[in-house]
Every structure is written in C-alpha cells, then in structure tokens.
Amino acid sequence: MNSTLLPYLPVFLFLLFAAGLGGGMVIASTLAGRRRRDEPAVDLSAYECGLKPADPEHKRYTVKFYMVAMLFILLDLEVAFLYPWAVVYRDLGWYGFWLMAVFMALLTIGFIYVWARGALEWGDGRPRRPKTAGG
Amino acid sequence: METQMFITILISVVQISIVLSLVALSVPLLILMERKVIGFMQSRIGPKRVGPSGMLQTIADGLKLLLKEDIIPDRADKWVFRLAPMIVLVPAFVAFAVVPFSGTGLNVFGQRITPWVTDLNIGILFIIAISSVGVFGIILGGWASNSKYPLLGALRSAAQMVSYEVPLGLALVGGLMWAGTASMVGIVEAQREAHLWFFIPQVVGTVIYFMAGVAETNRAPFDLAEAETELVSGFHTEYSGMRFGLYFIAEYANMLIVAAVATTMFFGGWLRPFPNVSWLAFLDIFNFILPGQWGPFMSGLMWVIIKVSCFIFLYYWIRATFPRYRYDQLMSIGWKWLLPLALANIMGTGALLLWLGQTG
Questions:
Q1: Which residues in B lie closer than 8 A to residue A33 (C-beta atoms)?
Q2: Closest residue of chain A to B360, computed from CA coordinates
Q3: Inter-chain contact A26–B97, Cβ cutoff 8 Å?
Q4: Residue B228 and which of A99, A112, A123, B325 are 20 to 30 A apart at CA?
Q5: Lowest-pLDDT range of A27-41, A61-75, A90-104, B124-138
Q6: What is the pLDDT of chain A when averaged over all its residues?
Q7: Which H or E run contains B106?
Q8: φ, ψ for residue B104 (rounded to 5)?
Q9: 3-class DSSP assignment, residue B111
Q10: What are residue B111's DSSP bridge partners?
C-alpha cells in the first residue's frame, strides 16, 4: 500500500467501528424497546403539544440563512488557504508575511463591504410591527 | 510483509476499541458531572436517588432511552430521518483517531503501541474537517422531520455552527504558526522544544478558540438551537428513544474533542507544567510509582485527562453563569467580534514571530 495513505487506514477502521457502535445502539434499542402495532395517530403526527399542527411543516424562513451559508463558504476557503501557509510560515519569513498581508487586506475590503451592506445584521431583537393599512 | 500488515491492523483494532470505549463510557460520567456541578453551583444537590449519591443516574437514564419506543413520524422522510443521528455521531467519534492521549507508547509482546490511533501529518485539519460533517446530520435531521420546530432549530443550529467554524479555524492558525506542523503529536513536541505552552503567546487565540468551540457544540450560552422556551427542543424534537440518545452522545463527544484540541494545541498535551524546569519533575507522579514504560505513559495520560477535565468544567461553569444570548447577539459576536479579532491575531502572531527572529 502507498505509504502516504497508510496512516489513513486506522481512520477508515475507526469509521467502521464508530458506525458499528452507533448502529449497534439503535439495533439494541429496537430489540429491547417498546413496540406497538396500533400506534395512535397523534403519536405519529408532527409535534404540537398533542394538538393538531396548525402551521404548514415547511414554513418560510428568512433568506439570511442563505447569506450566512455563502459567507461561510467564502471565509472557510480562506481558512483552508491559511493552514498550509501557517505551517510553513517560519520558512517563508518576511516574504510570507507580506504575501498574507496583501491577501488579508483584500479580504478585509470585502468584509467591510459585506458589513456595510448589512449582510451581518439580524435586527435588534425587537418584534417587527406589522404594517397596517392606514399607516 | 503480510504478517506485519496483519499485526499493524490488529494493533489499530485494539487501539480503536480502547479509545472508542473510553469515549463512549465517559459520556454518562460527563452528564452526571454536569448535573452535579451545576447543581452545586445553584445551591442544590443534583441527582441523588439512583445509586450512592446519584452515581448511577445517567446509567438509568441511558437504559430508559434504550427501552423507549422508537417513533418515526408518518410525515417524516423515513430513511433520512433514520440516518441523520448516525451522520452526527460517527464524525464526532472518528475525530478521536488523531488525538494523542499520552507521550510515550507501550511495548507489548515486542510490538510498539502508540497512545494515539494514528498520527496524520494534517491532524488538526482532519479534526476540523471531520467535525464539520456533523452539521449535515443536524440539518438533515431537522429537514427530514417535516415539522416546523425541528426545521427552525436545524436552520439556526446550522447557521450558528458554520458561523463559528470560521473563527474556530482561524484561532488555531496562530498556534500552527508557532508549531510549524499540523500533526497533533508534532504540535506537542514543538511545545516541548519551545519550552512554552502555546497558550502563553496565543492568549487571544485560545479565548477565541474556546468561545467558538462552545458555540460550535451548541452549548449554553450559545444553545439557541435547542432554546426550550421557543423551539421545544430544536432539531431533535421529533426524535425519541436511542436515536435521540445518539444526538446527545455526539454532543458530549464533540465537547471532548474541543477540549482535547485545546489541550493539545494550547496547553501542551501530555506535558507537565513547565516541562523544562527539572525540579518540577516530581509532578509526573506516576514515574515514581509505576515501573518502566508504564510510568511515563500514565503520567502523560494523567496530564491529558486533567487538562481536558478543566475545559469540560469550564463548559459547565459557563453554562451555570451566563444567560442565553439572543440570536442577533450570537451572530454579531461571531462575525463582528471573533472573526476580525482572529484575523488580527494571525497577523499579530506573524509579526511577533518575525520580531523574535523565530523565522528562517
């Protein structure tokens, strides 16, 4: 086997063992747990304190969650770039420092833009007043 | 060659079994300690009925979960619903594959057994990568439940986890610059050679890392994903029985991982305090009690356990001290404070290393 891949063999084994442990616990619970043939419909319905669920299950939610996801992808890629740079930083010296300073400066400009456009705002926690016909 | 390969795999299997059972068995203990610690912080006793002073409480709770009915709501997306807890649990366990539990290994039957399952040269990146897989399990679980509270809980949780993953990753970069390696064992060795726990030059990084770690594991005061007063219990509202238990075990395993990475990266892993000061050698107490190879092994293990326990205690302390944040506060702490601070910390560390002449 390739010697760079050899240290990953235990990781793969670990994955199998962890999946086995988790699966084993679930199987043990299905074997030992309570089972009913005639499940009352209210047990199987969506949770609403025993009442009939009033709202649709997939309510509309704010688009800000997508904003967060996009910002995450941008910045997490940057983290991925930083790791190899950090490991060899001592060999790079001043060259590496200025290289990253330029990269960080570009990133900071983008970050300030995102901040100024209000992508990081989530409201001030006060409930929003519904618009009335007269007002 | 064939036999050597077989022996290598056999050793791995033994190591994996030990690590996995240690982690799985420490979860009931962590839950019991949490209830006891927070109980005493709030001037009450905590669990006390089951077993001597409530010691068997979590065992009883676990058995209860095992015996409960495994309800799958009829509106749920059945297969995704079944699979989601596993997607959370497995990465939480697999991250332990690269955690070093002690410094020196043991020789058993002429075979060297290391106190870590494997030493990847990208160890820390591996942990960050594998623990972010857990987000998929949470969002899939919430989505597959086809119910409004789990969906909202899962969205909140996922947004929070990805938001704090950025400062978490960036906070570790400063430590990596000091260490010059991403291997978990190499990082501790670098701290031995530098005669310095990286906590000292990386105070800012450590604080950012731990705050982000608390948020990453959805713990109080950042436990908005399961804010009981608004969302019932977040993404696992529809789960019952052992599948609910898997989410719980994964949460505690993730806390242990955050604590173990902090220990390795910033607090010298298996090294005793001031490893270069020779008159403090008495602190490695097992070196004098146990014979031969067992001494250093047990001393290292002791330090890792002590340091990880301190971080776990800090988790409980924070939970007992701070009220839950509002969602907009949570997001602004992550994006507007921790992230710029972590970036500044990286450039500051770079400048400091150059100033100290630590670069080649």
A1: 66-70, 241-242
A2: A91
A3: no
A4: A123
A5: A27-41
A6: 80
A7: strand B106-108
A8: -110, 145
A9: strand
A10: B108
Which pair of structure tokens corresponds to residue B235?
């993404």
ipTM of the complex: 0.87
pLDDT at B295 over 90: no
Token pair for residue B127? 């942990």
**Does B350 contact A89 at a Cβ distance shorter than 8 Å?**
yes
Cα(B178)–Cα(B198) distance, integer angstroms: 7
Quote the Cα angle for B262-B134-B243, to 5°.
115
Chain A residues in contact with B86 (beta carbon < 8 A): 19, 22-23, 26
Q: Cα separation of B154 and B135, whole Å?
A: 9
The structure tokens listed for B167 are 């400062």
CA distance B336 to B343: 11
Nearest by Cα to B88 from B233, B260, B216: B216
Say which amino acid occupies B352: L
Mean pLDDT for chain B overall: 87
Are residues B304 and B101 in contact, defined by beta-carbon separation less than 8 angstroms? yes
How far is the alpha carbon of A129 from chain B, nearest alpha carbon, in Å? 18
Contacts of B93 in chain A (CB under 8 A): 14, 18, 21-22
In the structure encoding, which two tokens stand for residue B76, read together? 């749920």
The strand pairing partners of B112, in sequence order, are B107
Structural domains of chain A sorted by starting position, each given as residue range(s) with its CATH number in brackets: 6-116 (1.20.58.1610)
What values do phi and psi take at B111, rounded to 5?
-105, 140
Chain A hits for B169, CB-CB cut-off 8 Å, are 76, 79, 82-83
With contacts defined as CB-CB under 8 Å, which chain B residues touch A14?
Answer: 16, 19-20, 93-94, 96-97, 117
Q: A66: distance to nearest CA of chain B, Å?
A: 9
B212 contacts B150 by C-beta, under 8 angstroms? no
Q: Please name every residue paired with B108 in a beta bridge, in sequence order, or none if there are none.
A: B111
Q: Where are the domains of chain B?
A: 81-355
Calculated CA dihedral for residues A122, A77, A102, A82, nearest 10 degrees: 120
* Chain A interface test: which of B7, B94, B209 (most A C-beta within 10 Å): B94
